[in-house]
Specification:
The chain is built from nine helices and nine strands. With 217 residues, it is α/β, with parallel strands linked by helices.
């Protein structure tokens, strides 16, 4: 079966792939060699039918009546996502959130290599995470070009975000994880994933009130 182009693959499917990968990593650590879509369903919360449909976008990886070879499926998903090799990334904005995300990706995420961080505050221009350099924004074009970086994490204030994104796009960044609480305008070929921690928390608080509302009825 021919794999769909990256642009035509549904975003919802792409977002589920890392979930499958995490489960497969855990299963391999438990020495589970064969996994069925039913067990994957129990582990992920997605239906077995949904899992089979998701994987079918990229090929036939299992055997009917037997299931999937855990290691083989993991390697295939790594390759589909692009995690079979380390991806170079940069972090723009080295405040508390940027610092935390940088530390996490340096120490805990084996699939990426943080090559540099950027900030306009002179007090933050130092190295303190495994020798990682924190540069002023003026150095961004040189670093992105020299390291051939395509992915950026953005944690700058909302009123600075669009200007920084324009700089990123101008210098070849095509995928941005945006933590700035604002809508960004980018060309069609650039993918932006927005993560607003405040909205996520406020949405979660809604569900925390459910039990209280029930008892008030």
């Amino acid at each position: 079966m021919k794999e769909l182009s990256r642009r035509k693959t549904p975003k919802t499917v792409v977002k589920r792939l890392p979930v499958y990968l995490r489960i497969l990593d855990n299963l391999l650590r438990r020495d589970v060699d064969i996994i069925s879509s039913r067990v994957l369903s129990d582990e992920t919360g997605f239906t077995a039918e949904q899992i089979r449909k998701d994987l079918a976008y990229f090929g036939a990886f299992g055997t009917r009546g037997t299931g999937y070879n855990t290691g083989y499926l993991r390697e295939k998903i790594l390759r589909i996502i692009g995690l079979d090799k380390q991806t170079k990334i940069i972090v723009v904005g080295f405040g508390h959130l940027g610092h935390a995300l940088t530390r996490y990706n340096v120490y805990q995420n084996p699939y990426v290599e943080v090559v540099a961080a950027f900030d306009n505050d002179p007090a933050k221009l130092h190295s303190d995470i495994e020798g990682l350099e924190v540069y002023p924004l003026e150095k961004l074009p040189e670093v992105v070009s020299g390291q051939k970086v395509k992915v950026a994490i953005l944690t700058v204030p909302a009123d600075e975000a669009q200007k920084v994104v324009d700089l990123l796009v101008e210098n070849g960044i095509t995928a941005i994880l945006n933590f700035a609480p604002t809508k960004l305008h980018v060309p069609e070929y650039v993918y932006v994933h927005n993560t607003d921690l405040t909205i996520e928390l406020q949405s979660l608080i809604y569900y925390s009130q459910e039990d209280e509302k029930y008892h008030q009825q």
